[in-house]
Recover the amino acids of this structure.
């Protein structure tokens, strides 16, 4: 009887491994969720930002929780600061903008993707500099460039003086690849 049980156990392990191989994307999608996919694609394309990048940023910032609030007061999916939200609302001619609007997923995505697109243009299309600015602030990033501390290359992320910003970029760049792989529709 022990031989049959051993064979049975091996068969189950083999079945699990084979099914994991063929269903691995479905399994990974449980961990790397993609809520608000249609909105992400629309706002990303309007802002000239890759939808997989926005998805990765949202995963890092809020884990797709539209009610997320940081200890510094950033709100929503893309963790937009209320003062930045006010500035964005002014630039986009949104009337009657309020801090609470940043908890609305659609408005938060519109504001956050527009802002990241703005930063990307400001830094001449450099995605790394835009992401670092989104996290640390554009004035710090400009200072790093002016002082020759970091020039915005992904291969030199270790030169970023803020450990949080360095880790932020590493996570988002890795997750961007994950989201491209798991959700090919983000690349269309």
């Amino acid at each position: 009887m022990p031989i049959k049980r051993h064979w049975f156990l091996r068969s189950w392990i083999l079945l699990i491994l084979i099914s994991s191989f063929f269903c691995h994307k479905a399994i990974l999608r449980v961990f790397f969720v993609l809520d608000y996919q249609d909105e992400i694609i629309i706002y990303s394309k309007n802002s000239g930002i890759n939808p997989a990048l926005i998805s990765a940023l949202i995963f890092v910032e809020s884990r797709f929780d539209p009610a997320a609030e940081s200890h510094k007061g950033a709100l929503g999916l893309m963790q937009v600061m209320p003062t930045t939200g006010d500035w964005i609302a002014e630039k986009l001619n949104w009337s009657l903008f309020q801090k609470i609007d940043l908890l609305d997923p659609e408005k938060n995505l519109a504001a956050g993707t527009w802002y990241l697109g703005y930063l990307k243009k400001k830094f001449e299309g450099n995605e790394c500099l835009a992401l670092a600015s989104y996290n640390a602030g554009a004035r710090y990033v400009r200072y790093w460039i002016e002082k020759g501390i970091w020039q915005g290359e992904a291969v030199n992320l270790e030169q970023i003086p803020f450990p949080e910003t360095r880790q932020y970029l590493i996570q988002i760049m890795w997750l961007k690849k994950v989201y491209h792989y798991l959700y090919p529709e983000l690349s269309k």
